[in-house]
Specification:
about 130 residues; single chain; mainly alpha; about 0% strand
């Protein structure tokens, strides 16, 4: 079970005081390969480290955000294909924007607001 622990998690364990900080990469590789970890490094400690990782990288995301991102992405693909077939640059750009908007917007309300604004833009600007 512990053989799949990555170098990043081991280094975070060292930072949090669960493992000594002076590990070399060879020692880390030996620990990963052998599956032997210190006695105070249990699954509860590992889950705390993983939760810190996830909260840092996926802050503000939830199921609703993921579903909305998927919906706006699907609508964006439709806009892009429509713009490409009709030779409408604004619709194509709106499609690309709808696909990448979830990477730059952090809140659900802001995602909905910007998504709707981007979806309306091709109806008012015809190029």
């Amino acid at each position: 079970m512990y053989t799949i622990i990555s170098h990043g998690i081991i280094s975070q364990a060292a930072k949090s005081g669960l493992m000594p900080k002076n590990f070399s990469s060879k020692q880390i590789s030996k620990i990963i390969g052998s599956g032997k970890l210190p006695k105070n490094f249990n699954s509860g400690n590992m889950s705390k480290i993983l939760q810190k990782d996830q909260s840092k990288f996926f802050k503000g995301t939830g199921l609703a955000y993921i579903i909305l991102s998927f919906i706006f992405g699907a609508i964006g693909i439709g806009y892009f294909i429509y713009g490409k077939k009709q030779h409408l640059i604004v619709a194509m750009l709106a499609g690309v924007a709808l696909n990448v908007i979830s990477f730059f917007v952090s809140g659900i309300f802001l995602l909905i607001l910007t998504g709707i604004i981007i979806m309306v833009i091709p109806w008012f600007i015809r190029v």
